[in-house]
Design brief:
There is one protein chain. It contains seven helices and ten strands. By secondary structure, it is an alpha+beta fold. It has a single domain, classed as Aminohydrolase, N-terminal nucleophile (Ntn) domain (Glutamine Phosphoribosylpyrophosphate, subunit 1, domain 1, 4-Layer Sandwich). The protein has a five-stranded antiparallel sheet with strand order 8-1-2-9-10, covered by helices on one side. Strands 3-4-5-6-7 form a five-stranded antiparallel sheet. Helix 5 runs antiparallel to helix 6.
Length: 245
Amino acid sequence: MFSAAYSTNCTTFDPKGKILQIDYAKEAVKQGSVSVGLKSSTHVVLLGLKKSPHDLAIHQEKVFEIDDHMGIVISGMTADARFLRKYMMNACLNYEYVYGSKHPTERLIAAIAKKSQVKTAHPSKRPFGVGLLVGSIDAAGTHLFETCPSGNYFEYYSMAIGDRCQSAKTYLEKNFEGFSGSTRDQLIAHGVQALKASAQDTDLTEHNCSIGVLGKGEPFRMLNKDELKALVAAVGGEEEKMQID
């Protein structure tokens, strides 16, 4: 009864004390395909399960490069994500042009949070319907941040967002204490295992998953299809071996 009267703008609270537009935006993030991020002391890995909107369409990209030292994986509305990605890329370029160094991560995340919060405080606007996992390396070390449509942001050792992400979170919660000392390949393997846990009835292939890797002395890059195929096969082989044992 209340939703029709209180869901048309971002400045009216419903009788339960909620702003429904923000709840709708958070629901859009939950409905997006699962995205996973995890970090060690030297590397950050971002993974996304890609969806195809139609049998005749290619899979939509989930992982994007922002700068040599930063990348994002998204869950929610892709159009909003591309808008924020463009803003972040321009901010990094401008900062490097003016100061001659890479943009500090938390400073950029705070700017994104402020931009998101402004969208929740004006009756003619709507919140961004997308959540970001931002992985980066700067002078302070490795970082993994989550941004929320409400304007909140949090830093994690590892995190999963999107549809059926609880299975991935469960895997990460059981193993995150060992991530700090993990090598690049070990961290990627953990990420694939977490993604596979939430994929459930979807078989991981080189076509429906994206992986971006960033390390100290290693600029952000996307793994190619041959690397993805080998990783998916290796994870599948380990599971078969465990079942036999």
